[in-house]
Amino acid sequence: MNASVDPVITLEHVSRRYGAKVALGDVTLSIPRGGVLGLVGANGAGKTTLIKHILGLLRAQEGRVRIFGFNPVTEQVAVLQRLGYVSEDRDLPPWITVGELLRYIRSFYPAWDPDYAERLRQQLQLVATARIRTLSKGELAKAALLVALAHRPELLVLDEPSSGLDPLVRRELLEAVVRAVAEEGRTVLFSSHLLDEVARVSDRVAMLTAGRLVLHGELDAIMESHRRIVVRLKQSEPAPPRLPGTISLTGGPEEWTVICDGNVDPFIRGLRQDGGEVLEDTDATFEEIFHAYAATPTRT
Amino acid sequence: MKMALNVAVWELLWKNRLVFAALIALLGLGGVMTFAAAHAAPDAYWLPRARSITMVSFLASMFLGFAPFSLMETPGGWRMNSMITRWYVLPVRTGLLVFVPLLIAALFIALLVAVWMPVLNRIAPGLDGVHFTGVLVLGIVAVHALAWTVPRKPSQFWIGAAVLLPVVLVLALGPQDEDLHRRRGVLIPLACITLLLVAFAWYAARRNRCGDWPGELPLDRPWQFLRQGGATSVRRRDFRSRTAALLWSDSLPAFRLTAFGWLSLNLVLFLYFSLVMQRERPELAFSSRLLAFIVIDLLPMIGLLWLAVWGIFSGCEPSAGFRTRLSDFRATLPITSGILAGHKLIILFLGWCLVWMPPLMLSNWYDVDVNGVAAPETAARLHLIMARFMAISAYLMVGALPLFLWGRLNGFPNLLLAAMCTWAFLWILLANLGTEGDPGRLWILVAALLVAKIVAAAAGLASSLRSGHLTWRFPVILFAGWSIIAAFLVWGLSTWQTDGPYAAATLVLCLPLARLAWCPFAIAANRQR
Predict the structure, then answer these.
(1) Is residue A97 part of a domain?
(2) pTM recorded for the entire structure
(3) CA B62 to CA B57: how far, in whole Å?
């Protein structure tokens, strides 16, 4: 998956507040063309708010949003025509059949390819004559993905696409997304709080905590740079020791589990100067990294 | 443009194709009745009925004509108008999304009036189609403006639309100026208001599309205040029992709200009677009939007090959404019953507001006959009709709720509007049948309504039995209990003889309230499934 130089999504210092609550706080993010970006964060972290800014459904109170170089609020048509979107609620007309839905949606997208749409429908095993309101949760998610993919969008935005689905359907959906990226080099923004599926399909990861972007980068690089170190201190301490590179520290009072990023040498040097010793040094799992950052919202 | 047209064709016209079939059927019915009346002997006994049916068909057409263009769809709850949310992520300009459906709606309403005018001219000569169209187009524009203003709160939309529609109809059918020149002059302010509303709809849609507006009227705080009191009303003491906790959390908010609604409504009515009717129609302002209205008005309050006692322990409206509720509330039976009782009464109150205002306005207008001379007899007759309207309509509003919920569970679009149309249809039908002096006919109507309600409940029950949410014990015990209560009420009424319409009114109001009393037993019977 080759990333081109032009970013598909650019957010510069984007902020939004709902009353006293910070939904997005000074988020700066640039997503290059091609590949899958996993947007992770706990419930209420600001994932859906960020996606709504990308779709033009929210105007940034501060900062600047550009999608394909366009402002999504003032140039909705230019943005939405090149974008496929699956909402968390999977808003589809309940009274329509799958076949009718495809006929309805095709007129909005000049580049619609009916053969491709039909092939996708068959791959996703959706019956053309089935009415949307009679579909199961899994089928509804597939129908939403079908509509989002069938016009070959350059950018596919999936907001919690697999929430409430069983593992089989989840796998099927993710495979369809991966296929779409592999076949046509699309960009996919994929929000989820299911860390295993994000780790499985994403090339890049962005993590939001309390509206702030606390981590962003290539998944492999993130995994390589984060370590899980179990240390023993010389003297038991009620408060966690302050060591360089630490993201989170749990345990105590003598043995502490540390998640740290970047170069761990200064951390280990600092520890030894204090008379501590390293008991275990392993790669941190994605879940451990997520929990570490979720516990330290202000770190960038 | 083509894309916006496509939205309108699929989401408004194709989705509501059955409504258009119904409109054609109603037009056919009106046409046949008018044709038959034109060729009948002048003293044919069925002639007034034919005129009534034609007028009712026309008014039902107007209600139904609004339904496809209401821009409202709320599957899965009251929290979001999913149709507008869907439209917002389509690559179509907001202006086109607003103007194209609006234009189609306005043209359709104008066309509907135009095709009805030849029929109407035969039964109501002198009705000005242009004035009528002008008011209705204003109405549909107002409905659209409302939908674009509150896409996140369908409940606010429905309350607004439910108030708006009768007002528009009353304005359209109200006395029109004899002078054509002046009548046409009225169209200028109408057109100005319509254009302002169109501009507002566009502005609201644009603001809501990018989140500059919250998509709802800021009524959460007043609503919260009405239900739970001010910020200082936080309870700090522990509850003495589960019942006390449930009463505080569920019944008390409903009680506050209902009491406030009831007091407000009666204050408005009191002011109206004191200030307006006392001046204009002193012979009616404090008549015994008004006293009867106030007694009927008290019934929901009595019902509420009763439910606050009964409903808190357990109880459930058998056909009001019970399929979903029963599956959820196995462990929280009393909470559900409290919520349900509150909702039911709020709906009842909305019905009361709806029922009171249009007849009051109409009777005020019709108090003066065409020559400008007061006609107290006509007014008195209208008040009698009003009393009957109120009683029957209150029942119908309650009856429409389960039908509506049943329909929503089965995905029927716009069913609330359809229920309202049914209500309006029957309301107008009753007005035109002239049953005073013949209470027996009113009883037949009440029986027909009961049958309709039972059919709706039976359909809901059958569906729930099939899906396994209920066992056979539930309907059997409910039926037995309900029969006993109904028999008791009928016996009670036969020994307490008043004039027919009020006895009927009392019965129709008592039945839905009384039935709740038996529900705890039916629910208990079903708990072992």
Answers:
(1) yes
(2) 0.75
(3) 9
